[in-house]
Amino acid sequence: MHLGEVSGLSMGAATRDAFGEALLALGAINKALVTVDGDVGNSTRTEPFAKAYPDRAFNVGIAESNLVSVAGGLAACGKVPVVASFACFLMDNAFDQIRMSVAFPQLNVKLVGTHAGISIGEDGPSQMGIEDVALACSLPGVTVVVPSDAACTREATRACIEHDGPIYLRVGRGKVATIYPDGCSFELGKAITVREGTDATIIANGLMVAAAVDAATLCEPLGISCRVIDLHTIKPIDRDAIAAAAAETGAIVVAEEHLHHGGLGAAVAQVVGETTPVPMAFIDVGDQYAESGDPQGLLDKYGLTAETVMEAVKQAHGRK
Amino acid sequence: MPELSLDELKDKAKVIRRLIIRITTEAGSGHPTSSLSAADVVTALYFGGFMAYDPQKPHDPDRDRFILSKGHACPVLYSAMAEAGYFSTDDIMTLRKLGSPWEGHPNMRRLPGIEASTGSLGQGLSLGIGHALAGKMDGRDYHTYVMLGDGEMDEGQVWEALASAHKYALGNLTAIIDQNGYQQTGATKDVLDLTEFQPKIEAFGWHVQTIAGNDMDAVVTALKAARGISDQPTCIVSQTQKGYPVVPLLEAEGDPNYHGKPFSKKLAEAALAIIG
Ligand SMILES: Cc1ncc(C[n+]2csc(CCOP(=O)(O)OP(=O)(O)O)c2C)c(N)n1
Ligand SMILES: [Mg+2]
């Protein structure tokens, strides 16, 4: 049973595929766009861009720290470098380079972390980016974006490249449910209300938006009307949408495919605490590394399901 | 520590290659070609009398160490360790399945005998230096072997490690580069050409041999020579073929690198027939 199935959402493309498509299309329009790859372009989906624009594509080998600083130099010269690698290798391996060659000088580098989360499956924990959002959010002036489906990722990719400033865009390996129609509207920093509701709000991003929609469906017969908010931009965060949800629904559940500490949950909790304190509950990977296994089995085992989100809603709602 | 004859080692390498193919095809994912290229060296290390180890005492402080820095090639490690008696060949058929400690990349917290958790390329040689330094501090004469990929050599950390191993004259450390000519997105000479390795690594103060790494005689000779050096770190540039000895099958499939792709049942059958 895939995430979104309870609500009749069909399976769409992987968000990394949507990123690759959008990048290729943008390459025709924006001649300053360049890619800097670390020998994983066939996985990150920058490959079609590199094939179409070989003069604007650099593969510096398996050398993440080098590729981030190379991108910093390119950006300082007016290029718009897209640096794509696995989320873990990019954010974790090259963190100081991201700090000093991108964030501190506020250079216009687009960092794209693919293979985010535990849903990459069989390759196991060493390839899973689950600390990446915490690392990215810690950096002043870096916009952090986690789109939920293919249509939204295409628009997010466009917005990230048009934005003038450092960005971290996080995408996943496997297919995900379709939430939005093609050409949906997308604005950096502006949360999307996927579903209206009055008794509780589920705030999610990435593939957990589909789980949130399912949880809302499961809550209906329980008499709990759930609002679902897709908080695709964690930084800068949409304080108004969060404060309104807290004030109007009185309970908030946050669901994300990331470690417990430093991710979407922490970011939302700060805003709730500062604006309208209400009961909260959190669904995430916890404070642990996962393991190898099939993607669906892992999501089930580590509690990233519609049912766990629904239980969290019941819990937070019950504490109102 | 088993010490097989040359002919026995060649047979053992075949057994290990067969296991690599069986477990990755059963898993439906993984890196068989990265594992196959390294099979002769790993076989020689575990069965040629080069490593002292006891599967019953995986934490024995005097054991020799093998660190697979190119962790994605763990099917070769799991297969060799199964043959060595750390666990059974049935166990490793659970490769990459939910709940199995035989994960997609080595996890030292779940499998005694695995010396390092790897999978993010570039870190194994530094970990090996740590083992080698600790051995010297404690007055133990174990040896540490680290296997790296030729693509992995792109990582700056590897060169930092090469420099620091020389500083501490780590004669108890051997790096083996599995130079199979390919990395993820193509031939290493196209992605980032670091050859020739030998003069570069010699310039970092290491003793370096370049050998035919799919030739068991050459592998055994080189490992013996490396053990004879005690005042500087040693490196073996092991020139292999990714997917050896089934490269013609992969060429026929149109992808001689075949990186990170398991063999279909049909391809596996053909590969097993070639290995014999
Ligand atoms: C730090 C890091 N970056 C990228 C990867 C993704 N990756 C896995 S295997 C591989 C290619 C490795 O090539 P090589 O070292 O030559 O090993 P081979 O498969 O040829 O044996 C890459 C880029 C990784 N595992 N770690
Ligand atoms: Mg290689």
3D architecture notes:
The complex is a heterodimer of chains A (320) and B (276). Chain A has 2 domains: 11-177, Thiamin diphosphate (ThDP)-binding fold, Pyr/PP domains (Rossmann fold); 192-318, Rossmann fold (3-Layer(aba) Sandwich). Chain A contains 13 helices and 14 strands. Chain A has 320 residues and is of the alpha/beta class. Chain A has helices spanning 15-29, 41-44, 47-52, 64-76, 87-93, 95-103, 132-137, 150-162, 208-219, 239-249, 264-275, 295-301, 306-318, and strands at 11-14, 33-37, 57-59, 80-86, 110-114, 143-145, 167-170, 175-177, 192-195, 200-204, 226-230, 233-235, 252-255, 280-283. In chain A, 40% of the residues lie in helices and 18% in strands. In chain A, the strands form 3 sheets. In chain A, strands 3-2-4-5-7-6-12 form a 7-stranded mixed beta sheet, sandwiched between helices. In chain A, strand 6 (143-145), helix 8 (150-162) and strand 7 (167-170) form a beta-alpha-beta unit. Chain B is an alpha/beta fold and 276 residues long. Chain B has a single domain (6-275), classed as Rossmann fold (3-Layer(aba) Sandwich), CATH 3.40.50.970. Chain B is 43% helix and 11% strand. Chain B is built from 12 helices and 5 strands. Chain B has a 5-stranded parallel beta sheet with strand order 1-2-3-5-4, with helices on both faces. In chain B, strand 2, helix 7 and strand 3 (173-179) form a beta-alpha-beta unit. In chain B, helix 3 (39-47) packs across helix 10 (216-227) and helix 6 packs parallel to helix 7 (156-167). Chain B is globular and about 50 Å long. Chain B starts with 5 loop residues before the first helix and ends with a helix. Chains A and B meet through helix 2, helix 5 and helix 12 of A and loops of B. Thiamine diphosphate sits between chains B (31, 34, 37, 70, 72-73, 119-122, 149-152, 178, 180, 182-184, 242, 259) and A (38-40, 62, 64, 89, 93).
